[in-house]
Write a structure and sequence with these properties.
By secondary structure, the protein is low in regular secondary structure. It contains two helices and no strands. It is extended.
């Protein structure tokens, strides 16, 4: 039988305000990324809330680009008012 467990909110390590983080546009330019939607991918580089991103650009700088690497981002929030989801909800 299943047993009830208390969920615990996990958070990533805090990003120090002293860190000089580059913006998504700066990262795209420096890394030669030409994807027009790169700056909208908040989980990669988040200009507004840096504590919510995966902070992968330092890994890319070290040559770790994804081959053989598995990552996960758990997003337990749902914005039911967003343009792409709102029409699928009944109020």
């Amino acid at each position: 039988p299943q047993t009830l467990r208390q969920r615990v909110k996990r958070a990533p390590p805090p990003i120090s305000p002293a860190e000089n983080l580059e913006t998504a546009s700066e990262a795209a330019q420096r890394l030669g990324i030409h994807d027009p939607l790169f700056t909208k991918q908040w989980h990669i580089v988040n200009d507004d809330y840096p504590e919510h991103m995966m902070n992968v650009t330092p890994l890319w700088d070290m040559g770790i680009t994804g081959k053989g690497v598995i990552t996960a981002l758990v997003d337990d929030g749902l914005d039911y008012t967003s343009d792409d989801l709102a029409a699928n909800f009944v109020g």
